[in-house]
Amino acid sequence: MSDQLNWMNQHLILLKYKTVEELVSQGGYELAPKYGPLCKPGMSVEDFMTALVRANAIRDAASVLAYAIHRRAGVWWGVCCFRKLYAELAEAEKKQAEQAKIDAQKKEEEAAAAAAAAKEKAKEEEAQAAEAAAQEKKFTEMQEAAAKRIAEVKSKFTPEQKKLYDEARARFDAECVKITGLPVMAFINDMVKKEAESEAAKQSLKQKQEKKDAPPPAPPEAKADASDDPMPPEMLSQLKQKAFEITCQWVVDPSAENSITADNIANQIEDEPEGMLARTAFWSYGNLSVAEKDGSNVPVPAGLAANGLRTALLMAMLTEGGLYSLPERAAQYLSLGIEIACGRNNWTAPETEKNTPSGTEETKEEVYRKWK
User: How far apart are CA 76 and CA 63, in angstroms?
Assistant: First the structure.
């Protein structure tokens, strides 16, 4: 994180509280006991953040900045972080789409290869069946030819020759029965039948083994329970967009009207990051009763807006998907916050007309007056 220390030689000019003592006594910041040894008496916020960054406590350094920075600048910081998150998610979605396309193409190729293999296998089985049928036909023809030849020969036997043939055949069959339990021709037919059955059994066993070795079918995807998300996704998306847009408008014009609108939208999506950021804008206005017609003023408790900003940033860091881990996002968001606190990242035109920070150089006094 050494690159995060580049701001050490520059002053954070947009801090509402300059020392850690002011941050705790006036800003509502609670110093964690584990960081007590890092905080020296009279230590400035800048030096404390430097110590935290050196200790690799990036998220804690961002929390300190969330409490110390001027409220309007803090909301702008949140807007910039959310824009960075949106760009990251869009890039991740693009890469996922590209990978999905590659996976789909690979799946098609595998399916085509499997179909070709199945076709080839069916062709081989068909050829084997045809070969078996041809062998059986050939054997049958040989049997028929042999029987015909024997009949022809026997037809030419004299009575004495026929008697001798029948006696010899009977002795031969009797001998075969002793050994095999069947006469000669019955034994030959039985052997042919068993061979055919054995081949069929082998094919059946092979098919069963192939089915056994095949991967199990994927289980059906569980359907989402509609009760888990009572708000339709399209409505939720629209409200999140409106919340972000009103927050951008609030940065340009932190008026009572924009504050009330931000609070109203935040009430509908209070568990969403955009809802928390819009709520932070409302708290940053400074009057909890701004919507009341009697002109009453209920000051926002110290640290409430800062805590809202810290929570919104943490929710953004924890957003699922994207390209970066939580520590990486924390480092990126802290860098954005430092740029803003140094006065190097400011808006110069309405957010509805211009969505990128201005590169126009301004004096520290001009920047401070704008954000204060």
Answer: 15
pTM for this model (two decimals): 0.66
The one-letter amino acid code at 129 reads: A
Segments forming the whole domain that contains residue 109: 102-209
State the Cα torsion 178-180-184-187 to the nearest 10°.
160
Residue 107 and residue 190 in one domain: yes
Task: Provide the β-strand partners of residue 44.
Answer: 19
Would you say residue 32 lies in a domain? yes
Give the domain-ending residue among 169, 191, 209. Answer: 209
Asked if residue 214 belongs to a domain, the reply is: no
Return the structure tokens found at 82. 């959310």
Short-list 72, 33, 30, 22, CA closest to 309? 72
SS3 205: helix
pLDDT in single tens digits along all 372 residues of the chain: 334 445 444 578 899 999 999 999 999 999 999 998 999 999 999 999 999 999 999 999 999 999 999 999 999 999 999 999 999 999 999 998 998 899 888 888 898 888 888 888 888 888 888 887 888 787 778 878 877 877 777 777 788 777 777 777 787 778 778 787 888 777 777 776 777 677 666 776 777 676 666 666 666 665 555 445 578 999 999 999 999 999 999 999 999 999 999 999 999 999 999 999 999 999 999 999 998 888 889 999 999 999 999 999 999 999 999 999 999 999 999 999 999 999 988 875 444 444 433 333 444 444 444 444
Q: Is residue 219 part of a domain?
A: no
Tokens describing residue 83: 């824009």
349 Cβ neighbours under 8 A, 6+ residues apart: 358
Task: Give the integer Cα–Cα distance in Å for 336 and 358.
Answer: 14
Write down which residue in 281, 300, 319 finishes a domain.
Answer: 300
**CA-CA distance, 316 to 330, in Å (whole number)?**
9
